[in-house]
Amino acid sequence: MLRIGSGAGFSGDRIEPAETLVKHANLDYLVLECLAERTIALAQQRKRADDNEGYDPLLEKRMKKLLPLAVENNVRLITNMGAANPVGAAQKTLEIAKLLDIPCKIAAVTGDDVLDDIDLKSPALENNVSISDYDSIVSANAYLGADAIIPALETDANIIITGRVADPSLFLAPQMYHFNWGADEYEKLGQGLVTGHLLECSSQVSGGYFADGYRKKVENLNNIGFPFATIDSDGSSVISKVEGTGGVIDLRTVKEQLIYEIHDPKAYMTPDAIVDFTGVHLEETRKDQVKVTNGSGKERPKTLKVSVGYHAGFLGEGEISYAGSHALEKAEMAEEVLKEHLVPDITDLRVDFIGLSSVHRTSFSEVVPYEIRLRAAGYHQSKEKAKLIGEEVEALYLNGPAAGGGARKKVSESIGVLSTFIEREKVTAQVHLKEWKREKEGGEGN
Amino acid sequence: MEARERRGRGQLKLFEVAHSRAGDKGDIVNLSLIPYEETDYDWLREKVTPEAVKNHLQDIIKGDVVRYELPNINAFNFVCYQSLLGGVTTSLAMDTHGKTLSSALLEMEIE
């Protein structure tokens, strides 16, 4: 039996539920998944400004809480918080270990940065435009698989820090290592990746991103428990959470997470196997426990997916509110004024009415809200031009329509992301070890 | 009256009989559709066709809709192309990920 917990499902996730898991779930491993599509490109920019930077902004905060608990409870941490700088993240973690005087070993896994190795003539998956047509590429990171992490697990490192690794592969690696599965045992790998897919978004499987006030009632949402899996040597797993925490794990929550962010359920692409979800069997075995069996897989793809970050210009935004019985009419007048003033420069100007049509571009029910917040947004390669959007919204104050209030404006640099592929042979993962020992035991390693 | 008993007796909205979660990859959104009662799977399979979803979400989905069936868990996956105004990283939408689009699907009326 093997027990793996999910301690974070995104960079901004809560920290306390991970502490609860390490203390009370009798874990072997805690995995913290903290990278999104674009985060690594933003991290590359930070690294470019400062060589020691480029790892997850919350790394220090998370490690200060979790490192002492993990070492004390003999739980190994696996995380992609290295982002654009896994070695820098390991160095920072070493400094925390030193500060807290906790002897430990840290392994950094590198090799995902393929900016110098990608074929710029290759077409982007999204639009078939060649990558070289984008003149300001900032990053290119390949999605590594479990095989990149296993050499780090073979050391006695307490903490393993990676950059870009496919999310479910972070969870597959300890299963392959613990059960000694071969890299070609695709059926087991497929089931192991299904378990990883269910865990990778923390409380999305334990009732968090599930709760509503209608038919999906969830108890104690303010103290939601993060999930862990108890896994057998054939890969079959039971998803559950620590007793006494909030949330719910049942067929409904597991089904929602199983289908989350997948396309063809017969062919979910990962670096380790092409996963087949169509045989997966789910069974509620106890309160807040679901048994997952029969996931499967086929031979892994010959190429690895690469996320390419590029400068996409500047996003300008402005907002202003109107209220009362004629709020909508006034907002519509404001929209006309903005279009007249901005469209020559901002060709893709978008105007949303928050409270009416801003998230679904339309409204599925006939209501006229008492208040409307107008939001205008658009891109421009020039920061000065992008600023015009917020400035024109602000100018509505005196120039009308009447009674607009609470104007806000913002400009932010935008990093776009494209996808392409790279041959596996061009990508080599490496492990870098760092160790902190108490001085009388022999001093600091590197 | 329970939603299931109202089948065939007039319109009801999908949220009364099923739940959904949206996920994004680039400019593609995927919407799961999971009946609360597993026995409603065949009924929903007949009613919630890819064409019906495309029609219901015509202001959102600019590309194709592909429906995948998962009879093993009595659920569906609708993969909707060109639905996020370009995708999370450069979208001008308020909800760049399209996280709220599951609620839009559940507003669909069926008989």
Automatic annotation (TrEMBL), chain A:
Taxonomy, superkingdom: Bacteria
Alphabetized Pfam families for the sequence: AtuA (PF07287)
InterPro entries: AtuA_N (IPR010839)
Domain Acyclic terpene utilisation N-terminal stretches: 2-433
Entry protein name: Acyclic terpene utilisation N-terminal domain-containing protein
Organism, scientific name: Virgibacillus natechei
